[in-house]
Amino acid sequence: MPLFLSFDPYESPTNATVVELGRFLGQKIDQSNETIKLLRSERQQLISNSKDQSDKLLDLEARLKREQSYTVNISQKIDQSNETIELLRSERQQLIILFGFFLGLGRSRRFLQFH
Q: Which of 24, 28, 73, 104 is a Cys-bridge partner for 3, taking CB atoms 3.0 to 4.6 Å apart?
């Protein structure tokens, strides 16, 4: 409720004017107190949300570290598997060469036996 009061500096205010001014100022103080309560409540909510977000961030960081560790372990196992595959391929190639050698040796013996 807007209050428009005109004061004459040479005239003292009436009791009604002082009472109106007191009510007006009381309402403004009440509004200010309500605003302060709302702002404090919002601040507390923001602090709470910030703490929740901080906790969530810490949880996500811990999860990320676990996932990274898991990924590193999988990567190491893949590397080990690739090394094993290469070793087996090399051994297979050696066995093929040996088999070919012995097969050729056997054919040479038979050839020599018949001639």
A: 24
Q: How much is the pLDDT for 7? A: 56
What number of other Cβ atoms are within 10 A of residue 20's Cβ? 15
Name the residue among 35, 36, 21 with its Cα closest to residue 1. 21
Q: Write the DSSP assignment of 4-41 as a string of letters.
A: -----TTSPPPHHHHHHHHHHHHHHHHHHHHHHHHHHH
Residue 24 neighbours by CB under 8 Å, 6+ apart: 1, 3
**79 vs 101, higher pLDDT:** 79
Q: Which of these, 12, 11, 13, lies nearest to 3 by C-alpha position?
A: 13
The encoded tokens of residue 46 equal 């923001």
Residue type, 68: Q
